Amino acid sequence: xxxxxxxxxxxxxxxxxxxxxxxxxxxxxxxxxxxxxxxxxxxxxxxxxxxxxxxxxxxxxxxxxxxxxxxxxxxxxxxxxxxxxxxxxxxxxxxxxxxxxxxxxxxxxxxxxxxxxxxxxxxxxxxxxxxxxxxxxxxxxxxxxxxxxxxxxxxxxxxxxxxxxxxxxxxxxxxxxxxxxxxxxxxxxxxxxxxxxxxxxxxxxxxxxxxxxxxxxxxxxxxxxxxxxxxxxxxxxxxxxxxxxxxxxxxxxxxxxxxxxxxxxxxxxxxxxxxxxxxxxxxxxxxxxxxxxxxxxxxxxxxxxxxxxxxxxxxxxxxxxxxxxxxxxxxxxxxxxxxxxxxxxxxxxxxxxxxxxxxxxxxxxxxxxxxxxxxxxxxxxxxxxxxxxxxxxxxxxxxxxxxxxxxxxxxxxxxxxxxxxxxxxxxxxxxxxxxxxxxxxxxxxxxx
Length: 448
Known about the structure:
alpha+beta
């Protein structure tokens, strides 16, 4: 990627010669291959290759820096010269932003650790077909499964180069593998579906195709003949597959951009107990083969492992340079950007640390309650924390999962929910935003 870094640095110099005071640029190119398979036949096979380049320039004006971002897939000398012309002209025509800018040289990352983020073995279309077919066959072998809704396998390879007028210049590449299957159980009006999924940086870390298909089939069968439940307040257990959404809501609420706008229900909770004591939520950009691992963020600042929630207490926001400046703080190294967009704060490998109690023991402790396996809709207010989502799963009776439940609503307020949240011990790293199963007491279940 050294030639791409040279290209970006030349582009930045060109933009400065045309009137930009400072500038940065990003180049991204990638390859993706995906295959979908259903009922013994390949339904779709897609391969895409592409590249894009983005240039961001800043022009000094009264009140701060005016910025403009332009992008192009054409990297010819003439196209890049025109790109620089457009970017500078645009920056000169827009108002200044008092919080805009790039990192000072002494803020830049200097240690570029390899977190084993690139698998050099690209699977063939036949490899993906074999994976998807195996997953489908395993699912169809489950008694009660009537059909496969589809099995999919995919691969991606991305190369990124970043440079800025502050002297930062670095490139990296990463890979991704994925496999999923969706199965249908029952017939006619009584059909139910469910799925299983695995994603990883290296192919060898994927769950087996047999397990993916079998688990999807078993989950679909368990959902047959769902019932309604009466409205009331009950303890609720979120399966690990859906509990991660609760951590996602917290992540959005501590995004520095939301906090600076005053649109977060956690905006006044810094250094306060937001969760119960003993609960820890960690953001770890340095996890080996983590789906979102990186030694630097998209503004060139070093990343670091942080306890976002430490023994229940909120310790930090997710900050990029702009939101940090708005709040009078320092960036936490959480900037993320695309080729045609400005940086914004984002988590890396964020997860809720596991607790001591197993999921089975957590269920055994409940006389009446609800085990949630799927959530529907997005009835969550980032401003107030009010929470209301459609859900399905299984009813808990005397410590056992009894029958499937569908078409109910789970409601509460995230501030209250976080304080009673208890994590189980079944954490698995599968998405880049992960959590074990969790129990929350006193939620309202709206049924019949």
